[in-house]
Design a protein that fits this description.
Elements (H helix, E strand, L loop, with lengths): L4 H14 L3 H18 L2 H19 L2 H14 L8 H11 L3 H10 L9 H7 L1 H12 L3 H15 L6 H14 L1
Helix pairs in contact: 1-2, 1-3, 2-3, 3-4, 3-5, 4-5, 5-6, 6-8, 8-9, 8-10, 9-10
Amino acid sequence: MFYRIDALYRLASFQAMLEEDTTRKDYYISKLHLFANFTEDDKVSAFADAIEVHYLNSFAHDYQAALALIEENLEKYPDDKVFMFTLEKGKALYGLGQFEEALVWLKKHELWEFLHHPYDLSLHYEKDAYMALIYLELGDKELAIKHASIAKDLIKPMSDFPYKTFILAVYKKVMA
């Protein structure tokens, strides 16, 4: 059980975020940081930061705070493929209106082949929705439609998480 406690805290913080319970989210993220200190595992702390960044981008829409935490972590993990900081940096830059730079970061993001949980998959599928929004802003309707369709097709079988609502709204906007 001890070796999986970080996974339980990650899941609990993510569930609290989906339920818009910031008190519980903060509680479990703090537990993750304590666990990281106890086990001397910086990666657990990075996961806690990744959850907080995701919250800041997708729920609080505090893109400046998200970007600051992302930059702090990218200094430690410049070749990040695990914590999704590339995806979240693209989302933060999009939120700040820096479309071209956001696109660069979104293109760097890769879906890990070992993911299969609907939470994980759903938030990864946001990538193409954000790319669709960016292409729409840049005036490339064809690429906007392509990426909106990819995101819609990927999210279609998933449960009704906020990500599905967002992706379907993006698809509707692009197709209008």
